[in-house]
Amino acid sequence: MEKNNYITPKGHQKLVDELDQLLKVERPEVTRLVQWAASNGDRSENADYLYGKRRLREIDRRVRFLMGRLDAAVIVDPLKITSDKIQFGATIEVSDEEGEARHFTIVGVDEVDTAKGRISWQSPIGKTLLGKKEGDEVIVKVPAGEITYEVVSIVYKSIE
């Protein structure tokens, strides 16, 4: 049995869209290419055929992965959360010892985008923040040592 795959509605839709693209567009195109290449005779030195077969295996592997992730999906809509504690889907503002502000949104592992401040609920900082309230201090272990953050605000909003 797979673990739950917590995910936001937007993250879930992104996985569904990718699966649809693979099944309805890419796989049929590559299948046609392989059939055409196979009809050209000698397959052992047929680059189109060999590449196509390899690409089909890659697509099929990704399809199986996405189907597993979607089967295990537990969709959590941040707009429906009313907690004053940090939970999955929260957008948090923290400040470090120097007063430098940072923003994080706690999302599923399939939605991580550190450039946008989206961190996994399973990441070290995500795990440390879960359950905290405004005003709480958290100590996050990083490769260079430890960083202390104070939780400034917690908001539950739609993830862009």
Question: Your description of this structure?
Answer:
- With 160 residues, the chain is an alpha/beta fold.
- Helices cover 38% and strands 25% of the residues.
- It has three helices and seven strands; from the N terminus they run βααββββαββ.
- It has helices at 9-38, 47-71, 124-129; strands at 5-7, 73-75, 90-95, 101-107, 118-120, 137-142, 145-156.
- The strands form two sheets. A five-stranded mixed beta sheet has the order 5-4-3-7-6.
- Strand 3 (90-95) and strand 4 (101-107) form a beta hairpin.
- Helix 1 (9-38) packs antiparallel against helix 2 (47-71).
- The longest helix has 30 residues, at 9-38.
- The chain is elongated.
Low-confidence stretches: none
pLDDT averaged over residues: 92
Strand order of the largest sheet: 5-4-3-7-6
Overall body shape: elongated
Strand content: 25-35%
> H/E series, N to C?
EHHEEEEHEE
Q: Helicity, in percent?
A: 25-40%
Count the DSSP helices.
Answer: 3
Largest sheet: 5 strands, mixed
User: How many E-type strands?
Assistant: 7
Structural class computed from helices and strand pairing: alpha/beta
How far apart are the first and last residues' alpha carbons, in Å? Answer: 31 Å
Radius of gyration: 22 Å
